[in-house]
Amino acid sequence: MPHADSSLVPETIQSKADFWAHVYTQLELLLELERNWVTNLANASSVVYNSLLAFPSHFGTNERAVNWCGFYLDSCLFPPPRISRVDPIASNNPQASKLLLGPFCGKPACQFINTSPGKARGVCADAFLQQKTALVPDVDLYPGHIACDGDTKSEVVCPLILKSNDGNAEIRVLGVLDLDCLAVGGFDEEDKKGLERIAELVVKSCDW
Ligand code: SME
Backbone phi, then psi, for 100, in 5-degree steps? Predict the structure, then answer.
């Protein structure tokens, strides 16, 4: 099967529960071929984004479309540059805690999100620091929301939580999976549940 077909959604799928189960299976098959996180997060954002757009009974049509899907990652995961033209002392506080923009689908977005105590702001920082999914039906009512795209009306952000091998203890939060929608109330509890399973799958499919 061509890789692009991973994001097709058969017409027999009508409910959200079946939709998220289908996306999970497609992603599971795709991610088992590789463990590099850049590679897997790139395909994960594409499968989720394009599957949502291909599921018009709930998403994907004009003003209700999902307009962004991607990852922000703890800057600690990125190795320090081997060759840099920027003087680290002169550069703007390279040690600050932040989330960096990772693989995504959609229009350009902010490159980093501050997670330092007292300076953290926005839905992604909150989901990351609280280690809890943030379901935001109306971004204009969310204190501190960062508007990367003025057209976004609602958002859901799931933390990426690395667990111990037996799956019980939480080791650390690696970053977040973020989705935006052009409609108010674009995501519900069922989407939250489906995305949390996908976030878990993505974490366990990669070496970090
Ligand atoms: N709205 C997010 C910022 C990321 S963009 O939506 C892609 C936030 O408030 O953290």
Answer: -105, 145
State which ligand 1 atom lies nearest to the alpha carbon of 68.
7
Question: What integer pLDDT is reported at residue 170 of this predicted model?
Answer: 73
Report residue 38: phi and psi, to 5°.
Answer: -65, -45
Boundaries of domain holding 137: 3-204
Atom of ligand 1 nearest to the CA of 148: 5
Domain count, the chain: 1
- CB-based burial label for 193 (10 Å; 0-12, 13-18, 19+): middle
Q: How far is the CA of 33 from the centre of ligand 1 (A)?
A: 30
pLDDT of residue 39: 97
CATH of the domain at 188: 3.30.450.40
What per-residue confidence (pLDDT) applies to 83? 77
For position 78, what pLDDT does the model report? 87
- Measure the CA angle with vertex 177, ends 27 and 121; round to 5°: 180
How far does residue 99's CA lie from ligand 1's centre (Å)? 11
**DSSP conformation class of 82:** S
Low-confidence ranges of the chain (pLDDT < 70): 60, 86-95
Residue ranges around ligand 1 (CB below 6 Å): 68, 109-110, 113, 122-124, 145-146, 148, 155, 178, 180
d(CA 88, CA 90): 6
Nearest CA owner, ligand 1 atom 1:
146
pLDDT tens per residue, range 95-115: 579 999 999 999 999 999 999
